[in-house]
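input
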Amino acid sequence: MTVAAMFCLGMAIGLGLGCQRGQASAPAPVVNTATAGPATTPAPPAPPPAEAAVVPPAPARERAHVTLPKSSTSLLRRTRRPFTSKQLAWLSSFEFKDFVREDGGTTDEAVEIRHTTTTWPRFGVTVRIDRCPTAAPAGSRRARARHVEREKPVTADARPCLPMQLPVWEERRDELKQFMSSDLAMRSDTRFDIGARKVDGATAISTYQLGHLFALDDRNKTVALSSTAYALYYNDGVNRIRVMANYLDDAVPTRGQLVALAPPRELERMAVAFTRFYLHHWQ
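output
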């Protein structure tokens, strides 16, 4: 008498990183099925599914120390005037040890810069500084884009500067998910927290996001998405800043590995250090 044996294997592959766009509808879970041929003797029992799905961890890599910006610990003061184009250009010129600076765009109204770590694992800290939309620098009649070699205009943000009050920002929850793909934002297991914290005496609004998706779409193509980031928002009614720290390195097989490589506390430390540095230098 022959015995047919069925073996189910789970496969976990690396996740795509950043705010990638996947399919509009939730794909089906990834499952591969293999069927064994006839055997003359009973096959040994298969291990439990949970054990079969375990992937041996890769050899541990040594995490490198990252030098974060240092700044004053004094209380922050409100700015009195909207930044001029020269002030914004100066604020965008800083470079930091263990980070590579990249221009994200420059205009008379706003600057955006990203600082990327040169160490492993790789993180990015994106800083955007601009004036509140109703504010105009003294003596300026009309905003004009700066034409500087290798610079590109950063997208204008016409949204008002909201008070630094948590209930007001919680009403913007969907809007604050702008740096996460819609496929991740709609998932029930995606984490998105909004909070308020002090930065040298000033109240800032924080967000933390963690999303993960690995599945097959309706064309049997793998969809792999992930996003983990910590952001701080602050304005004093005249000028404003947004600082976001996020993981940029290679994809990892599981959500747990992603959190281990980019712990929320580490992302927070990065975002706070850069926020404090720029806020103390824009006064």
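quick obs: Residues 216 and 222 are 5 Å apart (CA to CA).
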